[in-house]
Amino acid sequence: MGLFDGKVAFITGAGRGQGRSHALRIAQEGADVALVDLGSAGKVENPDYRTSTSDDLAETQAMVEALDRRALTFEVDVRDHQGLKEAADRTAAELGGIDYVVANAGISDGFFPIWDLPVENWQTMLDINLSGVFYTCKATVPHVRARGEGGSIVLIGSVAAIKSYGWLAHYSAAKFGVRGLATAIAKELAPEYIRCNSLHPGAINTDMTAAMEYLGNVPREQLLQQFRDQQLLERNIEPRDSTAAVVWLLSDESRFVTGQEIIVDGGESKK
């Protein structure tokens, strides 16, 4: 018996990194999953971002199926509401509904003072990291509501939504928006006993770190050391650490937790 036997989860950014980690653990707990990532559906140009590939998404699917769970894959840009709606509708039709949503897809960028931050980078950041989360919720929430009580939605933010940082104003602004969106959705869905929370991880050594290394021209080990120096617990945070919080927030173990900001940051926000 798993925590999520008979359930269906819809996960964006599932091709690699934290999204893949979330998908595999949710599948291990018994859920069938819809896996969404960019793949061949488009390109992020501002910044020039190394996105998840079709092969990455197919690999996640194979790993889920090796756990004897069903997995649908969708190559969709989260800036495309219609594409997300079609993915959600097909998920509900083929897997029987949607119980859980993990809005995980997002990007980072290099470091800019506000006076040098390109307008195009600002717009892309908000389009993906905030509007993309809204589009995901708009596409999936009708299906979660159709399943009745017990649904759970987790929006992935960042410690930068709790403790804002300079030189990443657009990233912090988008993630603060995710935090506010989660509390609003929690209020709207509470009468139906469907929960929504936001999760705010610290810096984790994934492909997003690789992107920051590339875009900021900072060696990865230097970045990781900077991350550790900002934490009370001076060790690298791993994807499994944020995944454990996602699983708890989706499960009935947190059935009276809604509208909350859950922080997994090694104490960075308190240092």
Q: Characteristics of this structure?
A:
single chain, 271 residues, alpha/beta, Rossmann fold, globular
**What's the shape?**
globular
Number of domains: 1
- Write the CATH architecture name: 3-Layer(aba) Sandwich
Which CATH C-level class is it?
A: Alpha Beta
Kindly report how far apart the N and C termini lie.
40 Å
Determine the CATH superfamily. Answer: NAD(P)-binding Rossmann-like Domain
The overall strand count is 7
Strands side by side in the biggest sheet: 3-2-1-4-5-6-7
Report mean pLDDT, rounded to a whole number. Answer: 96
Strand content: 5-15%
CATH fold assignment: Rossmann fold
Poorly predicted regions are: none
Q: Quickly give the structural class.
A: alpha/beta
Count the DSSP helices: 8
Report on this model:
A seven-stranded parallel beta sheet has the order 3-2-1-4-5-6-7, sandwiched between helices. With about 270 residues, it is α/β, with parallel strands linked by helices. The termini are far apart. The chain contains eight helices and seven strands. Helix 1 (about 15-30) packs across helix 8 and helix 4 packs parallel to helix 5 (about 170-190). The mean pLDDT is about 95. About 50% of the residues are buried. The protein has one domain (about 10-205, about 240-265): NAD(P)-binding Rossmann-like Domain (Rossmann fold), CATH 3.40.50.720.
Question: What's the layout of helices and strands?
Answer:
Elements: E1 8-12, H1 17-28, E2 32-37, H2 54-65, E3 71-75, H3 81-95, E4 100-103, H4 119-147, E5 152-156, H5 169-189, E6 195-201, H6 207-216, H7 220-229, H8 239-250, E7 261-264
Parallel strand pairs: 1-2, 1-4, 2-3, 4-5, 5-6, 6-7
